[in-house]
Amino acid sequence: VISDGGHYVHALDQAGSILYHFPSTLGSDYAPSPEGRFTVESITFDPTWHYQPELLTGVDPSREEAVLPEGPNNAVGVVWMQLSKPHYGIHGTSAPETIGYATSHGCVRLTNWDAGFLGQRIPPGVAVEFRDVTRAPDTAPNETEATPS
Predict the structure, then answer these.
(1) In which element (H, E) is residue 113 found?
(2) Is-contact 48 144, C-beta < 8 A?
C-alpha cells in the first residue's frame, strides 16, 4: 500500500502493479502524516473509538476521554488498520465529504466502503509507505481522530 502525495492511496501487487486506487485524506499542516515505511500490524472491523484529547493537536488535553461504540458513524468508521507507528492507521470515516482535504490528524482516511474493501484484501504485515506527503487543500470541516481501543 502506498500513499503518494496526500490525495490517494494505491494498493499494489508484489510486482508493483496498481490493484486499487482510493481517494484519501492524510494529515494536515498542524498534524502531518509520517513519512517513511511502516507495516499494518492488525486489522479491526467495527472498531470502537477511544477519544484521547492528549493525542490530538489543537484539542484541549484536559478534556475528558471517551470511548465511542462501533459503527459507521464513529470517527474511524467501519475498519481500523493499525500501523507499526503508534497511534497511526488507515481507517474509514463518518464524514466522507472530508476525503481529499488535509483534515486528518496524520492517519490515512478513506471512505468507509473503500476502507472496508481494502481491509478485506490485505493481511497484517503488509507494507505501507508514505511518499511525498504534501497537503491537499485544508478547506473541509475538521474532525477529531485518535486510536481506537
Answers:
(1) helix 112-119
(2) no
Task: Find cell 476521554 and name the residue.
Answer: 65
Q: Which of 115, 40, 24, 42 is nearest to 76 (CA)?
A: 115
Q: In the predicted model, is pLDDT for residue 98 greater than 60? A: yes
pTM, rounded to two decimals: 0.77
**pLDDT for residue 117:** 96
Q: Tell me the average pLDDT across 17-38.
A: 82
**Rounded distance between C-alpha atoms, residue 40 and residue 7, angstroms:** 20
Task: List, in order of start, the domains of the chain with CATH numbers.
Answer: 2-131 (2.40.440.10)
Q: What is the pLDDT of residues 72-87, one digit of tens each?
A: 778 889 999 999 998 8
Please, what is the Cα angle at 136 between 63 and 75, to 5 degrees? 35
Place of cell 459507521: 72
Give the CA angle between residues 116, 47, 148 to the nearest 5°.
120
What is the percent of the chain where pLDDT is above 70? 69
For 94, phi and psi rounded to 5 degrees?
-85, -5
What are residue 11's phi and psi, to 5 degrees? -100, 125
